[in-house]
Design a protein that fits this description.
The chain has 73 residues and is an alpha+beta fold. The chain contains three helices and four strands.
């Protein structure tokens, strides 16, 4: 699975960015994004994605890697 930030739900509050131990979340000009090459979903240390746990709007979605590649290239 790959984590993505759902732009329709994201309030751009930024609480997810400092929670990421891998610095996989970054802010672009108009959105927050998750770099799938850096994201480990925090499973090795925390058992669940920290960004998903702190998001007040449930703006973090899980998608299959094959679907991610199809959508985001």
């Amino acid at each position: 699975m790959t984590l993505v930030i759902n732009e329709d739900k994201c309030a751009r509050c930024g609480v997810c960015e400092p929670e990421c131990p891998n610095e996989a979340i970054m802010q672009t000009e108009d959105a927050y994004i998750i770099d799938p090459s850096l994201c480990t979903e925090c499973v090795e240390r925390y058992g669940q994605p920290l960004c998903e746990a702190v998001c007040p709007n449930n703006g973090i979605d899980r998608v299959k890697k094959s679907l991610y590649k199809k959508l985001f290239g």
